[in-house]
Amino acid sequence: MMRDFNFVFKRTLVVCAWFCFFLLSQDLFSQTIFKGVVLDADTGLPLPYVNIGFVNKGLGTVSEEDGTFNFSFDASKLSSSDTLKVSSLAYKDYRLPFLEVQGQGAKPLQIKLEPEVVSLNEVVLSSRKRKRRSKNDKIVGYSYVGKLKNGSWEGDGALGGELVTKINVNKKSRQLKAFYFYVLENTSDSLLIRINVYDGTTKYPEKKITNKNILYTLKTKVGKVGVDLEPYNIIVENDFSIGVELLKVYGSQIGLMLAGDDTPGVSYRRYASQGEWKRYSKDALTYFVSTTLLDDDEDDADMDETLVLDYSEEQLLNTMGKNKKQVGGFVFKEGEPIVKAQIQNLTTGEVAFTDEKGRYTINAKVNDELEFSHSFLEKEKRKVLETSYAVNVSLQEKVVNLEEVTVTASTKGKRTQEELLAQYNEDKGIIKTSFGIFDKETSGVSLKIMDESDFTSGATTLGNLLRGKVSGLSMLSTDKLDGSTQIFLRQGGTSNPIPAAYEIDGLIVEGFPTFLDISQIKRIAVLSGLSAVAKYGSIGAGGVIIINTKASASSSNGQKRGAGIGNARTVASKTITEEEARRNWPDFLQELYSSTNFAQAQEVYNTYEPKYGSNPNFNIDAINYFLEFWAGETFTEGLVERNLERSTKDVDYLKALAFVLDKNEKYGLSVDLYKRILRQKSNSIESYRDLAYAYVLNKQEEKGMGLYGRCFNLLEEGYFSEPPEALQNVMNSEVKVLLDIPEEKITSSLANLMEDERKTRILLEWNDDSAVLDFQFVSSDGYVSDWSNERDGEAKESLVSRGFTSKDFFIYGNEGSWQINSNYRGNKSGLATYLKITISTDYGTADQKNRTMFFRADIKDVYRELVKIP
Length: 870
Hints:
Strand content: 25-35%
Low-confidence stretches: 1-29, 117-135, 296-324, 400-412, 555-566, 741-756
Helix content: 10-25%
Number of helices: 20
Shape: elongated
Mean pLDDT: 76
Number of strands: 51
Largest sheet: 9 strands, mixed
Distance between the termini: 64 Å
Structural class: alpha+beta
């Protein structure tokens, strides 16, 4: 059953003469009417929204806009010891004993409040000039809409009633910027409320730390509400309490219910003005506040400040606070999934285990702590953050500290992928592979690594380089004239030996690499036996010879050949043309594209729609076709509109539809789709980036800039896990161009942006985050660069396992034409995957031109020609 604070406030006018008369006859003589006006003692001006009531009795009201008040109370519930209290911000309290109130009768009372000299130091409130915004923008409080709790008002005469929650913070000086809460129900026309901020170090809310009324007219029926606090310059240095006070009801019906957070906290409520506070030690309302930690640095704002300045709170409001029922992810060791790793929620005690793919799910909510463990591996702990939706963990070998044990190379601490990459040229025991960068001493597999300094002088073939260096190696020359040789590893005595496979700069090759220039080899590793099978599957049954060329070794040091895309070679894979790809399209799509007029195309659609109308691919393909050839037809507009109105949570479908609209420059419609996607994946930084980029395309640069700023800000504050390098670079590129940032002002988070020679940008996006895609970039002189979303960058990071769907590349200078090919290797759904490729020439200049293309990927395991540049 949903728990509330027993504070439901509902009043419905019921015209019923005999019932009203009955009530009056019973209560007429017990009710005392108290009325009057509250004025400023110095100016004589009326004071609005002053709290008037009997202390701790739940009998009270607030004054109107003109300072007048009029309320009735049951005198039998009061005694001579009770006191009427009149209070307002920045004024001294006025008190009147009950007997004097009673003696006043029906005569209006004029109450004059004396202005109070407020000590800013005592209340930790400052009207001094606000310090410059620092990088320390933080959200504090409770942002989840819980299922078990709520706060609301109940009963007549609840004006002045309050719902307050205590916010615990670090003991640092901070400015309160905006206050947020969530309305579950509001049946009134509108309500006038006051936001009160109290000193949070007392048992009950007693001392307000605001000296101005913060008034807000609440019209929201259901949803999140934000109130701007910046104009009030509220500075706190300790815990504080914040809440909502009801001042006025517009309309004949009253009802307001606010959301509570399932996270334990402390809340307070009182029924009416000056009423007694009741404390709830395990309950918190969904109240959260955006704040800025203040510092003494008055220097000019840096890049992070520029990004954060002036962004709207709207999207943060729409995406924070979504209650998480489960979190999930993967557990790895050295890039390999761990089966039956244990995940324990230390807060609730619940336990889960990873499956054969290393995947897990577990019930958890914000601030819960998860512990990851497995035999002989070090335990890891992770806290569930407000935006955690996937927690991936890599467990390391357990380090055992024994007395008087000599520490050898085998007990060295493991290095990160970034550290291994940085030390690659100096450490001869490091090899780059398609599974990541391996250190011979800590890889856990049998690995023989040879550096170019170990090679036999004068060797002209790969076999000569390896001869005498690898035990159990044997070679067999072939009859081919290209000098190829079959190399066998540790298979003596086997009746049917299997030759070794090769991996060259991340590219796996089954045959002998005749194209390889021996003089360009930087390092060789030999992986044999079960270790090779475990890593490479059946292709590694005969062992694997891993080769790093000198080009690969220097690629991280400014190499700019072509798009700088991963692994280079000189032989392109066999490809099929677009025409050949279309031969594999489903019948309805082939018939659509064979139509010679609109009527024929419409007939094809109407024939297949009853059968395939619920299929996402059918709808996406049909919309793409009709927008491409018959955009001006009413039928096409209706088709688009119907699909936009579909109530679906299928993010893959929504993104594919947005791609189609982007291609046809219907950016206003695609913005709405990206908003829906963000609401579905509010914890993904890529959802923020997608919407920000959509805003920019729709000529809403200020909104785009604000949302990019929020991405960087929330990332810095830890609301998002560190994105892959691919997405970080995409965002960096777009923000740099959007803000036209001079090179000298680029901060470390944007330091990899290059100011000069950027000419053409290639932006790849795909709608399904489980899709596996390989790309080739073939230059006019036959130079080939390979890239896969399973192995991005020098660290070979998998975008698939992390659920990211974008990557950009650049062609520098005048390097002729390039052909982009793609190999689709499938997804989890079995449906087609859709690609959006945006080519931006003269990127970042006034002459920039964008060309957006849309592709249906359904043929697997073959390279397909996509687009040629220019």
